[in-house]
Design a protein that fits this description.
Layout (H helix, E strand, L loop, with lengths): L5 E4 L2 E4 L1 H19 L4 H21 L6
Antiparallel strand pairs: 1-2
Length: 66
């Protein structure tokens, strides 16, 4: 999944919150689907991506987005 709405200015990177949430949901679904497929190792990869994106969201606001 590629971010579409982002901005890089100097040392700052701005990412759209909605895109971050959508990516979090996307990787959660991929990790669930990968658990039951032949690509079992991919489940851990996608779960890791999900965790990182959710952790980024939690840095800025208290959320139940897990």
């Amino acid at each position: 999944m590629t971010f579409r709405n982002y901005k890089i200015e100097g040392d700052s990177i701005t990412i759209n919150k909605q895109e971050l949430q959508e990516s979090c949901k996307h990787y959660k679904e991929l990790s669930k689907n990968s658990l039951f497929s032949k690509a079992f190792g991919a489940a851990f990869y996608y779960k890791g991506k999900h965790d990182i994106l959710c952790d980024i969201l939690k840095l800025f606001e208290q959320t139940d987005f897990v």
